[in-house]
Each structure stands twice: as C-alpha cells, then as structure tokens.
C-alpha cells in the first residue's frame, strides 16, 4: 500500500529525513517511535503532503502511484488520512458539517454523488456511538473549546467517518487519560481490516498495549535504524534510546 524509497526531506536548508525506507502492506499496523526531533512527525507530514516540507530525494508510492506532485487534498481523496498532533480550531463550522463536507468532497473526486442525507445521519450516529461521543458534541464548532482529549477523539471519529485506506496517527495518545486512550484505541481496532493500514507515531509504549503493531520502527536522526515487533517497544520503555544510538553508531 505504501512504499517509501530513500526519502530525504526538510524545511528550507535543514534536512530532517535522511534516507527513510519503509513498506506498509494492507492489513498491517506499523508503529514509529523515536526521541523528540528524530523526524517522526515530519515523516507523517511529508506522506500527507504538508507543503512546508521539501522532498529533495527519493519517492513515496501509494498503491504503486508516485504521489510526490499531489496536493494534500488529492492524497486525502486517494485514501490517506493524517490525525494531527495539534488539531486546529475552526470556529463557526460544526463537527457534523465538517464531516459531511469532507465525505462529499471525497465522493466528488471519485465521480460519485453526495451521500444521501439519511445514510449520512445513520453513519454519524453509528460512529459517534463507537467513540462514546455525546450528540451535542457534533453540533459544536470544530475543536473550538475542546479539551485535548476531545480533540483527539474527534480526529479518530473523523477517521472512522472517512474510512481511509492509510491512517496516520501522529501522537494521538498525547494528552489522553487512560479511559479516553482506551476508547480511541478500541475505535481504531474496530476500523482495522485487511483492506486498510495504520501508521502509529508515538513516544510511549502504553498506546501499543491497545493498538497492537505488527512492526515497530525506531527513527533516529532522520533514519529508521531498527525494526522489530511489539517487544521492541517494551525494550525502549525500559531502556530508553541510548542503546539504540550506540548500536546505530557501529552499523
């Protein structure tokens, strides 16, 4: 589904990603871990097409198509979803209207008519229940006055509604208490299928107790330096990153 070859990217004259290679197949969950400033969020942003980052070398293939020239919204229409680390507030636009617009723009890009209102309402009710969301929440302005946990839950609700092929969760666990973390993780697990894939970016092993990864990758200084199973996340929790830094120096 996703194939990244020798990806170099950065901002202006600062190189952040220094040769990322990664393959993600449908049905898989991959976790990206690493210390602050290692390039985790940059990788997520570059896959999603955030325009402040320049790709200087390498390519990103999504379902065998090079997406380098596609705008963020075009990538979204093809099925790439990014849950933001810091979701923005959009006063005056309700959660429900935002979701309706996003879904119908995606359908338009695929040559489909708008989703019928009754079908949309049924889907909103079903997904809101999945995340234990109060119906009043859906009429509020998007993220305005939301707590950190509400913003993150709303992001995953959007993911559930949009049903992307590739979901990238950028530190979705930050700011969540254990109950909200469980609800969000259970929702993600219910949405997983053989036809989609999840890329989880996290600092902490605790999220991976709920969303079980098939692979854990460690990024240091803009490169993936180690890949393992969920047990690698436990080892990082226990030992930190210094041993990986030493290991990387000897390679």
Automatic annotation (TrEMBL):
CDD domains, alphabetized: ABC_FeS_Assembly (cd03217)
UniProt key word NAD: no
Keywords noted in UniProt: ATP-binding, Nucleotide-binding
Listed InterPro entries: AAA+_ATPase, ABC_transporter-like_ATP-bd, FeS-cluster_ATPase_SufC, P-loop_NTPase
Gene3D superfamilies: P-loop containing nucleotide triphosphate hydrolases
Family membership: Belongs to the ABC transporter superfamily. Ycf16 family.
One Pfam family in the UniProt entry: ABC_tran
Protein name: ABC transporter ATP-binding protein
Domain ABC transporter: 2-246
Organism lineage string: Bacteria, Pseudomonadati, Bacteroidota, Flavobacteriia, Flavobacteriales
Keyword Glycoprotein: no
Organism this protein belongs to: Planktosalinus lacus
SMART domains: AAA
Superkingdom of origin: Bacteria
MF annotations from Gene Ontology: ATP binding; ATP hydrolysis activity
